[in-house]
Structures are given as structure tokens and as C-alpha cells.
Design a protein that fits this description.
- The complex is a heterotrimer of chains A (about 260), B (about 325) and C (about 260).
- Chain A is mainly alpha-helical and about 260 residues long.
- Chain A has one domain.
- Chain A is built from twelve helices and two strands.
- In chain A, helix 3 runs antiparallel to helix 7.
- Chain A starts with a helix and ends in a 6-residue tail after the last helix.
- In chain A, about 35% of the residues are buried.
- Chain B has about 325 residues and is of the alpha/beta class.
- Chain B folds into two domains: about 240 residues, Rossmann fold (3-Layer(aba) Sandwich); about 60 residues, Alpha-Beta Plaits (2-Layer Sandwich), CATH 3.30.70.
- In chain B, helix 5 runs antiparallel to helix 6.
- In chain C, about 75% of the residues lie in helices and about 0% in strands.
- Chain C contains twelve helices and two strands; from the N terminus they run ααββαααααααααα.
- Classes of the chains: A mainly alpha (about 260), B alpha/beta (about 325), C mainly alpha (about 260).
- The interface between A and B is medium-sized, with 31 and 33 residues.
């Protein structure tokens, strides 16, 4: 078990190294990626700010709460963009052009190689922006030391949940002629998840909380941080993560069984 | 040791009627059809042997290899390779095999090959000292020492294939699957790759299963040949038996000074002309070779001629037109 | 004329083969975005029809976003990827030989896509008009016609922009980053998320000197009857489209020189 963990850590270190070396040969792309993320951060904060110039609260949340919520989203999104996103885009190519074949004959978990192999070197550097925003607004909200200790773990947990959901969705590419549309579906779900859950009407909120639990990703941790009495949401989130892992392992087996591999 | 019994694979494909109406129709309702890529297939390959899997495109060679490597799950039948069932994808099994595909690359395109090798070192848990030694040996054998630090995208196809082969052999696999390793290469590069595979096999005594549609690959490397047609094994045996299928005929090419009319002398030997009738290819039985050639040299304005064995394309074409040949050869074998 | 019609038919055929992708890439995002915005604004107004934010009552705001959706459905285009691929795979040289120029080919694709998108937009409009008739009582047919005319012109703007981004493939390995940057910025600055008259005064005034308001805000206002003079709006749009196309011409010439020079 321990040696396996060490094996994967060493392998992952090699992934990181390879991706950074590769990114350095495309300097302009590297810079553009950073600009893209910055524009995205700016547009999200600006939207929320403009709305709060006209109202005091949205639902029960005031400006600081929503701003913290947005910063939390961006920190998780930053991890997702750096560590996972490229792999989803590449999966459709891997399947269509048969590059997946090589990952399948390697003596490592194919799930690991398929979804963690590509790291976006440019994005990794930007973690400072969302984290400083999170600290700034957390401070304004008067977070206790409990909240600060627990915060990094909540970011990781949210990252895990979003990763699980998106990976499960991406598996659909195994049954499609063209996988790009699935990536758009993924982005639409991100779009929906990026707002407080109370803005959605009852029935849709239930589906997006219990069935495809995208609303839990950012809402559960934020609500828990605002008020520790709201611990039930965290139970929901933890079970969603657990179920997600089970579903993913089962589904991945199904994918590999039906993988036909491009003929040339 | 590779054995399989009754191994087969079916694929589902989707049919579309031509034209806009057909597209519109298939938008709402798609019809699927089952296509069998490999029909029940038996084979037994002893340890240390090199076997050539030969057949036209789409015959099922690659699908077979993919079932052996655990990439594609068989629809039925049993496979046992060095004690493992590939479809179970046991990690220990994957550590002992290697797959090279002539049409795909496992190297990172925008990096020097050495970076990809280091990644493979981690994948296969190769100790640093073994790794260095191995890279040194293989690089020397393939004569690519200078290419390992060049970006892969800047390599020629032949160079890339060498590096590709190297990347698959770093972990000393026991069983090696080579899928069209010489495809698209020029003749010299093809010869180099063949030479390397032969030397490597000689030194390491691994089992190699090679697919190709170049007869030369198989001739140079394998003593045993398996011929597949439409997903079925049609011949399995000695390579000389297979090449004698068409009797002892030679392929002779004549180049003429100028355009030549059909000549009664040529007709019995299945002439294939080029467009401006300055070159003809004939199939001449071995025992009449000398006599016929002399006659042609006398009667026609020949500037050059040469003989070779029948190219695989023509053997296959003849075999496919007349499958009975295979059955008789199989019986003799 | 016949070859145009043939190309259009082939394009439709291709679109329909990748049916799920088409829905996920073209229709899905717009519908999801509409759904998120409606939920958000409903929640901001707390369902209260009395409150006004800026000049907007709840029903004004919902109507605004409804028309935004229709304009988006008609005008958005996503062609940069296709052009990038053509350039990268060296297909541009085949167009240089054909009697059918690259420009003509792209333009037919544009027309056929526009026709499909207009059809989808009208279909959505019909559904919405029958189900939510209460939001449609105070508009005039003439304004709708003006707005839709603008939307068609806006689609030329989007097309030109995407074309320009695609052309950057001559210099850049990956152009999608620029496409995403443009999209993120335009989404906010064209009033797609928040109507521009709710922006701070200085920002709104600054935006008047850019093409952004004409992409969404002005056409929507036109339909709602407060968009001002049609000719001014059209003039502005055409001006920006001309500028874009001058840049395209310049970039295309530069790129082609690079392309033939490199002997790709």
C-alpha cells in the first residue's frame, strides 16, 4: 500500500515535470493562459460587485458572503483548471485517435494516467489571486481559527467532488462519435454550480443537489463556514464524494470494456 | 507462451443512408449492425518465437493484437499469455509486455525523447542504474545517441520509429507486440528496423508477435507466418510453404526503350503493363526463366530487366481470388 | 449559386451527424445561461414584482434576458476551431487551389449555420410566447423586426471575430485561449449578464466607445422599444465589422506570407 502510494507520487512528479518542460516551449500560450484566468476572475468579481451596487442582499447573503463564495469557487476552479481540465479536453482525442491504447498497456491505473496526466503549468502559478481574495473576505466575515484550519480541506474536498462529477460525465465520450460536446456540457454544469443554491427553484434545486450534486460543490462548504450549525450539508457533501468514487470505478470498468480503440 | 482458443470480437457499427434525408432520418433513429472483426481464432506460440501476422488492411490483425494486450476486451473465447488473461489487465502482466504501433506514438510530441523515457522509467519502476545502462545499450544498438535530446516532432519518421521502439523496450518486456512497425518508412529505414528487431530478439530471447502487410518484414524476421483474411486464420505454418503457394514462379520486370505492343510471347505469363507500355511485369515459372528471358531479350527492345520474388500484394491478391490454394497449403503443412 | 446550395446542404448534413454535439455546443449553453440568469434575477428581486432595480422591474428584467437569449441564439458563432484546424492541418493550401475560396467556404458555412440558428431561435420564441404570454404583451412587431435585423448583423460581427481568432493559428499553437478570453469579456461587457444601464456611470460611458453594447444590449433594447435610432445602431455595428474585416485582411495577408514562406 505504502509502496503503491510512493509509486504514484513519483509518477505524478514526473507528470508535473514533463508538463512544465513542455509548457516552457510555448511561452506565448503560457502567458495567454494566465491572462485568460485573470479575465475570468475579473469578470466574475465585477458581475457580483455591480449587482450589489443596487441591492443589499441576494437571498440571505450579503456582499461579503457572496464575494467569499466567489473566491472559494475560484480557488477550486483554479485547481480544476491546473490539474484536470486539460485531460478532459484531451480525452476525446485520446479515444478518437487511439492514443488511449498506450495508457492502457502501462502498469499503472489507467484512470490515474488518463485524468491526471496533463497539468496546465500556466494556471498553477495563479493560485495567489483566489486565495488572497478568500482570505480578504474571510477576514471581513470574521472567520474563527477553526474556519481557517478547515478551509484548505474544504477546498480540496470541493475539488474532489467537482473532479468526480466531471470525470463521470466525461466517460460518456466513450460512446460518442465526437467528445467535444461533452466538454460543453461539463462547462454548463460549472456555470450552474457557480451560484448560491437558493437562487434555484425547488424541484431543480433538488435534482442538482441530490442527483447530480453540482450545487453541493461550493454551497456546502461555504454554508458550513458561515455557520457551523449547518453541518448537515457537509454530511451530504461527504456522502456525495463517497458515492462518486464508487460510481466512477464502476463506470470506468464499463468504459474500458466497451472501448473499441480507433483502428489506425 | 501465447495461446488462445475460439477468440472472437464483434463491433457495432452505425449505418447512415446517403443524402440529407438520410441524415435527417438517422438524427432520430439510428440503425446498428454487428460486424465481426475477428472470428473464432486459435493460435499457440511457444516462448521465444517470432511469429508474423500477415493480412490485408481490415483483416483483424490489429484487433487481435489489441485483445492480446488487454486494450480491447474480447467478445468471447479464451486467451492465455505467459499465464495471464490480458482482459483482466493485471499490473504484473502489463509490466511484462510491450506494444509498438507504427501509426501511433507514445512519445510526447513536443519534448525530447529522453523526457518521455524518464516518464516510462517511473511507470515501469526501473532502477536508475538499470535505466542508464539500458538506454545506453539500446541507443547504441539503434544508433540514436544523438537523437535522444531532440524534440520528437523534429525527428524524421524513421528516426522517430527507432526512438519509439526504444521506448517500448526499456523495461525488458517478455512479450513484444509490434503492430506495423515499418509502415510508411523508406526502404533503408525499414531494413534498419528489421535488422534491429532481429538482433534484439537474438540477444534477449523474448516472444515477438509482429503484424505487417509487408512480406519483407515477415520474411526477414519470422520463421512462422499466420495469414488472416476477413477475421479468420487462413494459413498457419512455415514461411517457405506460404511463399511457394503459387508454385515456383518468379516475378520479372522488363523496361523497354520505347512503347511496345502486346506480344504473343508475353501473353502466357500474366503481363501487367504500365500506362505507356514501356514496362511489363511477368510471372514466369522458375524452370522456364532462362529460356523465356532470352527470347524476350531477342525479340523486344529491352533496356533493363530484373527478377524478384512475387511481391506480397500479388500473392495476397492471388490467394484471395483463389482461397483453395490456402487450404491445400495448410494440409501439406 | 448551385455550389453554395450544395455546400450548405453538406454543412447541414455534418451538423446533424454530430447531433448531440450540436445541441450541446450551440443550443445548450444559451439555454443554460438563460436559466441561470432568470433564477439569479428572480432571487435578487426576491420574486417581488413591485421593486425596481435601476429602471427594471422583475418582469422587465426577465423580458430583457429572454430577448438576450433570442439574440444569442441567432448571432453566436463558433467557427474559429474549424478554421484553426484547416490552417494547422495545411488544408488552406487546398483552398488556394480550388475555385472555391477559403472565404467563400467559410461564408457558406456561416450562412447555413445562421439559417439553422434562426430556425432554432424562432422555434424557442414560439414556445416561450405560448407558455409565458404575460411577458410579451408590451412589444411591437416593428421593434421585434428591427431587433432581429440587428441580430443578423451582429452574427456577422461574431463571425468576423471568430474568423480573426482562427487566423491567429498562423502564429499560435492554440487559439482557443483567445476565444475564451474574448467570450468571457464580451459576455460581461455586452450586457449579457447585467444590463449595461445598471453598470456604474463611468463604465457605461466608456463602453459607448467600444463595439460591445451593440452585440447584445442595443438589439435587446431595440426589441423592448427603447433602443433609440435603428440607423445609428446599424451604422455603429457596420463600422466595427468593417474595422474587424480590415484587420482580418491584414492578418490574412501576413499569415499567408508566413504560410507559403514556410512551405507548410
Amino acid at each position: 500500500m505504502l509502496s503503491r502510494t510512493k509509486y504514484y507520487l513519483l509518477l505524478y512528479r514526473e507528470f508535473i515535470k514533463t508538463c512544465f518542460v513542455e509548457a516552457m516551449s510555448f511561452r506565448l500560450h503560457f502567458v495567454l493562459l494566465i491572462i485568460m484566468d485573470l479575465v475570468f476572475y475579473a469578470s466574475v468579481f465585477a458581475s457580483v460587485d455591480i449587482i450589489y451596487q443596487h441591492v443589499e442582499t441576494i437571498g440571505t447573503w450579503n456582499r461579503e458572503q457572496l464575494m467569499f463564495f466567489v473566491s472559494f469557487i475560484l480557488s477550486v476552479n483554479h485547481l480544476q483548471m491546473s490539474l484536470l481540465a486539460n485531460n478532459y479536453w484531451e480525452l476525446s482525442l485520446l479515444i478518437r485517435q487511439g492514443g488511449l491504447d498506450f495508457l492502457l498497456v502501462k502498469p499503472a491505473s489507467s484512470l490515474f494516467s488518463t485524468f491526471l496526466r496533463r497539468i496546465s503549468a500556466g494556471s498553477t502559478l495563479l493560485f495567489l489571486v483566489p486565495w488572497s481574495c478568500m482570505i480578504y473576505f474571510g477576514n471581513k466575515l470574521g472567520f474563527t481559527w477553526h474556519a481557517w484550519v478547515i478551509l484548505p480541506f474544504l477546498v480540496l474536498l470541493a475539488f474532489m467532488l467537482t473532479g468526480l462529477i466531471e470525470t463521470i460525465i466525461s466517460c460518456a465520450m466513450f460512446w460518442m462519435l465526437e467528445g467535444v460536446g461533452i466538454n460543453f456540457l461539463r462547462m454548463q454544469l460549472q456555470q450552474v454550480a457557480r451560484w448560491p443554491d437558493f437562487i434555484y427553484a425547488g424541484f431543480i434545486r433538488k435534482i442538482l443537489t441530490f442527483f447530480i450534486p453540482v450545487l453541493l460543490i461550493y454551497n456546502a462548504p461555504s454554508r458550513f463556514l458561515f455557520d457551523f450549525h449547518d453541518w448537515l450539508v457537509m454530511v451530504g457533501m461527504l456522502s456525495a464524494v463517497a458515492i462518486g468514487w464508487v460510481v466512477l470505478f464502476f463506470l470506468w470498468k464499463l468504459c474500458l470494456n466497451s472501448y473499441e480503440s480507433a483502428s489506425s | 507462451m501465447i495461446t488462445c482458443q475460439g477468440l472472437y470480437k464483434n463491433f457495432k457499427t452505425y449505418q447512415k443512408e446517403p443524402g440529407f434525408a438520410g441524415t435527417l432520418k438517422s438524427f432520430f433513429k439510428r440503425e446498428y449492425e454487428t460486424k465481426s472483426a475477428v472470428k473464432p481464432f486459435d493460435i499457440e506460440i511457444p516462448e521465444g518465437e517470432i511469429v508474423g501476422l500477415l493480412g490485408p488492411n481490415g483483416a483483424g490483425k490489429t484487433t487481435l493484437i489489441k485483445m492480446f494486450t488487454g486494450i480491447v476486451v474480447p467478445s468471447g473465447g479464451t486467451v492465455n499469455i505467459i499465464g495471464f488473461n490480458p482482459a483482466k489487465r493485471d499490473r504484473r502482466y502489463r509490466k511484462k509486455i510491450a506494444l509498438v504501433m507504427g501509426q501511433k506514438s507514445q512519445l510526447w510530441w513536443d519534448l525530447p525523447a529522453m523526457d518521455s523515457f524518464q516518464l516510462l522509467q517511473r511507470y515501469y519502476e526501473i532502477a536508475e542504474r538499470d535505466f542508464k545502462k539500458r538506454v545506453g545499450e539500446l541507443a547504441e544498438l539503434l544508433d540514436v545517441q544523438k537523437l535522444l535530446n531532440v524534440h520528437v516532432r523534429k525527428l524524421s519518421l524513421g528516426e522517430r520509429m527507432k526512438v519509439e521502439l526504444m521506448s517500448c523496450l526499456l523495461h525488458k518486456p517478455e512479450v513484444i507486440f509490434l503492430d506495423e512497425p515499418t509502415i510508411g518508412l523508406d526502404l533503408i529505414a525499414q531494413r534498419n528496423i528489421r535488422q534491429f528487431i532481429r538482433d534484439y530478439h537474438h540477444r534477449n530471447h523474448c516472444t515477438i508477435l509482429l503484424t505487417s502487410h509487408y512480406m519483407a518484414d515477415v520474411e526477414a524476421l519470422c520463421s512462422r507466418l499466420v495469414f488472416i483474411l476477413e477475421g479468420e486464420k487462413r494459413f498457419d505454418g512455415d514461411i517457405t510453404t506460404f511463399s511457394n503457394l503459387l508454385g515456383s514462379e518468379k516475378n520479372v520486370v522488363f523496361d523497354f526503350e520505347n512503347s511496345v505492343e502486346e506480344h504473343p510471347l508475353l501473353i502466357p505469363f500474366d503481363p501487367h503493363w504500365n500506362d505507356d507500355h514501356t514496362r511489363v511485369e511477368l510471372r514466369i515459372p522458375h524452370n522456364r526463366l532462362k529460356e523465356v528471358t532470352v527470347q524476350i531479350l531477342e525479340c523486344l527492345p529491352v533496356v533493363e530487366f530484373n527478377t524478384e520474388k512475387l511481391p506480397i500484394e500479388r500473392v495476397m491478391k492471388t490467394v484471395m481470388e483463389n482461397p483453395a490454394l490456402l487450404e491445400s497449403a495448410q494440409r501439406e503443412n | 449559386m448551385l455550389k453554395w446550395w450544395q455546400t450548405i446542404k453538406v454543412h447541414w448534413s455534418n451538423t446533424l451527424v454530430y447531433r448531440v454535439n450540436f445541441l450541446l455546443m450551440v443550443v445548450g449553453p444559451v439555454l443554460v445561461f438563460f436559466f441561470v440568469k432568470v433564477s439569479l434575477w428572480y432571487s435578487i428581486f426576491e420574486g417581488n414584482t413591485e421593486i425596481r432595480i435601476g429602471n427594471y422591474s422583475l418582469s422587465d428584467m426577465l423580458t430583457y434576458h429572454l430577448w438576450t437569449m433570442i439574440i444569442m441564439l441567432i448571432s453566436r458563432s463558433y467557427n474559429f476551431g474549424k478554421l484553426s484546424e484547416d490552417i494547422r492541418l495545411g488544408r488552406v493550401s487546398t483552398y488556394l487551389i480550388y475555385p472555391f475560396s477559403l472565404w467563400e467556404f467559410q461564408a457558406t458555412n456561416f450562412v447555413s449555420r445562421l439559417l439553422i440558428q434562426i430556425f432554432i431561435a424562432l422555434f424557442c420564441l414560439f414556445i416561450l410566447m405560448t407558455t409565458f404570454s404575460q411577458y410579451f404583451n408590451n412589444f411591437e412587431a416593428i421593434n421585434l423586426a428591427k431587433g432581429l435585423l440587428l441580430a443578423v448583423v451582429v452574427s456577422v460581427f461574431w463571425f468576423s471575430l471568430q474568423y480573426l481568432i482562427g487566423l491567429l493559428t498562423f502564429w499560435l499553437e492554440e487559439t482557443w485561449v483567445i476565444a475564451v478570453i474574448a467570450e468571457t469579456a464580451i459576455q460581461l461587457l455586452s450586457g449579457n449578464m447585467i444590463p449595461l444601464d445598471l453598470f456604474p456611470e463611468w463604465a457605461a460611458r466608456l463602453l459607448d466607445y467600444t463595439p460591445f453594447p451593440y452585440v447584445t444590449f442595443v438589439p435587446v433594447k431595440m426589441i423592448m422599444g427603447s433602443g433609440g435610432d435603428l440607423l445609428t445602431a446599424l451604422g455603429n455595428l457596420v463600422f466595427w465589422i468593417l474595422i474587424l474585416n480590415l484587420i482580418i485582411l491584414f492578418v490574412w495577408r501576413k499569415g499567408l506570407k508566413l504560410y507559403t514562406g514556410a512551405g507548410m
